[in-house]
Design brief:
This protein is α/β, with parallel strands linked by helices and about 625 residues long. It contains 27 helices and 15 strands. The protein has a six-stranded parallel sheet, sandwiched between helices. A five-stranded parallel sheet has the order 10-9-11-12-13. The two termini are about 55 Å apart.
Length: about 625
């Protein structure tokens, strides 16, 4: 008998439920399980990744290839001389010792210890085996592997499988599932017993067992299910880790994760982990004393950064575009007007002039609007923008005076955060880098502190006419994913393909369940209204991101070089997402655009991210 599940008609229900499987197993006396990809998962889709880790530890160039080739050679030798192709670690490493100066016993032990460290249990079968034991079933395992019976037993015990009655291993028995002769041995051992074998290989575990008269249950390989949905162009090692951590987590059973959770787990985790590890590596290399993560994107970044082994001293620093723009006004009033007037005038949302003045704290200019043929109910637009700019320039000193409390409070906050640090890194999502550059200006030119300041962005993009390359070339700004001078091809992908609003789409993974920061005052911190309507969605996305990062770091913290995720590997899943963003319609339709105090109450409730993305 062969029980199969339709995997493709409804991907959310591709596994049998545990209760249904347990009901089926009631009729059997002996339940046999495959080990790898059934009872036990590895955090990579190919054992070559394990061999690459060994290569790094051993310092032997091309060890991974030597290991793979040597196993193949031993199997061929055994087939030609002993009529079977089973092998042991000892045989493999005896051959490797002839090709290198490695001690076969010590190196074989290293491989086993790495297997022991990296293997982890499939929760689905932990539950199944626990119930089988309660029902007095004989539990056996059957595996084609070069490891010994004792080593398999230790791996199983280490992962909570304590009640295995017998272990059948091809390396010792010289019989295999691949040839089918190992099932005959099992049948001979358990004569007159009803046996079922459960495994993930359709040929070795299912067809060959059935041909030997053993009933089966097909637990389709998680990588056969999930890998077709993964990105094939990622680098070999990171790509195999990424695929395994997703496939193992999402496809081991019919777990109903929300769309928002899966969005964070599949697309947010790899990007954010890659970025914060890049920040950490940069900080170590440049002897950074302190890292400032700017709000609000820095809320997610800093929490994930804190999970890294050997991370640097860091602080979550309250900042915003508005905060930076007000500071800018003292040195660059042109830029202040460009951001507060012209950017908003070209936006897709209506802003009353009254609300703009109130928001900036310059409502006292309201009585002068008549002189510029404006009224408080007029809308900021391309038509009215020039008049408002004239108003601002004519009252520049008054505006700057109204910002002075804010300015001095900000300077003091920066001074307290930098403290005695001789070098700091300021971290932000992007995109123009103005926040970090403004803070650098405060530190160097206002406070005149003897402190090196580095600006680290997830992505750096500006219009060509802004000469953005200048700040990359002089070392003021470093960007992880792309810039005009680094990973330019990724920048081109980001600008020219996808939604046309890819910056905002990437920021979906760094949304925070906190209100926007408006500025420092002598009365304390000032915040905008809470965006409560979005918080549950944001929590789900962030939870998915965090679960991915937790698993990745937990598995590879002892070989932390594997946390070094290239910009390409971090961006490629997002690139695939942005190019098929229609799948996000349900999520985007539930997210409300945050417009804060710029907008009146009538405009605060009905604009969604989806409607924004669908606008020209």
């Amino acid at each position: 008998m062969h029980c199969n599940i339709d995997l493709y008609s409804n991907l959310e229900n591709f596994r049998i439920e545990p209760k249904e499987l347990l009901n089926k197993l009631c009729e059997y006396d002996v339940v046999s399980f495959d080990v790898f990809d059934t009872l036990i998962f590895r955090p990579f889709t190919s054992p070559r990744v394990l061999f690459s880790i060994m290569e790094k530890r051993l310092g032997i160039y091309k060890f991974s290839k030597i290991r793979v080739d040597s196993e193949d050679e031993v199997r061929i030798f055994n087939q030609e001389n002993y009529k079977h192709d089973n092998t042991t670690l000892s045989e493999i490493y005896n051959l490797i010792s002839k090709k290198t100066n490695l001690c076969p016993k010590k190196t074989a032990q290293l491989e086993y210890e790495l297997e022991l460290n990296y293997c982890y249990a499939n929760p689905f079968f932990q539950e199944i085996i626990s119930e089988c034991v309660k029902n007095k079933k004989k539990i056996i395992v059957c595996t084609d592997i070069y490891l010994s019976k004792q080593q398999i037993q230790e791996i199983l015990k280490n992962n909570g499988y304590q009640s295995i009655n017998e272990i059948y291993v091809s390396s010792e028995l010289k019989r295999s599932k691949k040839k089918g002769d190992i099932y005959q041995l099992i049948k001979e051992t358990y004569k007159d017993k009803k046996i079922i074998h459960i495994g993930d290989s359709y040929i070795s575990d299912i067809k060959n067992a059935e041909n030997s008269g053993v009933d089966t249950f097909y637990y389709k390989n998680i990588n056969d299910i999930g890998t077709k949905n993964r990105i094939s162009s990622m680098s070999y090692i990171t790509g195999r880790i990424y695929s395994a951590l997703i496939n193992n987590h999402l496809y081991y059973r019919n777990t109903q994760y929300s769309e928002e959770y899966k969005l964070g787990y599949i697309y947010g985790g790899i990007y954010i982990l890659g970025f914060v590890q890049w920040v950490n590596k940069f900080s170590i290399t440049h002897n950074i004393d302190k890292i400032l993560f700017l709000s609000r994107d820095g809320d997610v970044y800093s929490k994930m950064y804190d999970k890294l082994p050997n991370h640097k001293n860091w602080q979550y620093f309250y900042w915003s575009r508005l905060a930076g723009t007000k500071i800018t006004a003292f040195e660059n009033f042109y830029e202040f007007c460009r951001r507060m007037i012209w950017h908003k005038a070209r936006g897709v949302y209506t802003i009353k002039i009254e609300h703009l003045l109130n928001f900036l704290g310059i409502e006292q200019l309201g009585h002068k609007l008549d002189s510029y043929n404006l009224s408080k109910d007029d809308i900021l637009s391309k038509t009215t923008a020039q008049k408002i700019e004239d108003l601002f320039y004519d009252n520049k000193n008054q505006i700057l005076n109204s910002f002075k409390d804010y300015f001095y409070s900000t300077i003091q906050a920066v001074k307290e955060s930098v403290a005695n640090a001789k070098s700091i890194a300021i971290v932000d999502v992007g995109w123009a880098g103005t926040g970090p550059l403004i803070l650098k200006n405060i530190i160097k030119n206002y406070l005149k502190l003897d402190c090196e300041v580095y600006s680290l962005l997830a992505g750096y993009r500006q219009p060509v006419e802004n000469m953005a390359a200048l700040y990359s070339m002089d070392g003021s700004i470093y960007s992880y994913l792309f810039s005009d001078t680094s990973n330019k091809d990724l920048l081109d992908l980001h600008i020219n393909y996808g939604t046309g609003k890819n910056n905002l789409l990437l920021e979906l993974f760094t949304q925070s369940c906190t209100p926007s920061f408006l500025g420092y005052t002598n009365k304390g911190l000032k915040f905008d209204r809470d965006e409560l309507e979005n918080y549950e969605i944001i929590k789900q996305i962030n939870r998915g991101t965090e679960d991915f990062i937790n698993l990745y770091i937990n598995k590879f913290k002892h070989d932390s070089f594997l946390l070094n995720i290239s910009a390409y590997d971090a961006y490629l899943p997002f690139n695939e997402l942005k190019n098929s963003s229609g799948r996000l319609k349900n999520i985007l339709s539930k997210l409300i655009i945050s417009r804060g105090q710029f907008y009146d109450a009538d405009n605060l409730s009905n604009e969604t991210w989806l409607s924004f993305f669908e606008k020209d």
